[in-house]
TrEMBL record:
Pfam families attached to this UniProt entry: EF-hand_7 (PF13499)
Domain EF-hand: 6-41, 79-114, 115-147
Superkingdom of this protein's organism: Eukaryota
A GO-annotated cellular component: myosin II complex
Xref: InterPro entries: CALM/Myosin/TropC-like, EF-hand-dom_pair, EF_Hand_1_Ca_BS, EF_hand_dom
Protein name stated in the entry: EF-hand domain-containing protein
Signal peptide: none
MF (Gene Ontology): calcium ion binding
Keywords carried by this UniProt record: Calcium, Repeat
Coiled coil region boundaries: none
Source organism: Ridgeia piscesae
Amino acid sequence: MSIPSDLKKELEEAFFFFAYDKDRKISSKEVGAVVRSVGLNPTEAQLKEMMNEVDRAGGRVDVPAMTRILQGRMKEQTTSHDELRDAFQVFDKNGNGQVSVHDLKHSLTTLGERLADEELDELVREVDQDGEGQLNYEDVVKVLLGK
């Protein structure tokens, strides 16, 4: 899976901002800021994996190298999207594509890779815009995967 051209352009702009050196490379410590600045929302574990890849590549990467790293992550996310959607279907008691905020909080703070309370509150604010306490889990999956 290739990176969309608009994301690649945003990545180039982020590198221009974050890569202060003439070589236009970022260090592993800057990966999180760069990735999040282009609208992606990796988990801490995914971020650590990306940082490790940068470290293995000599500790600094340019746009093409970071693009390759992100392409690998995007392939993984295709599977992750389906897996996350399937996981939320378990909590969809009515079969209507909705999950309650309570069930979402329980699943994301106790099962699998846990979200911090602040991250979870931000997610609920973003997805539960009507405040009814029922979330479309496709929207939740999109936010979790940074799409």
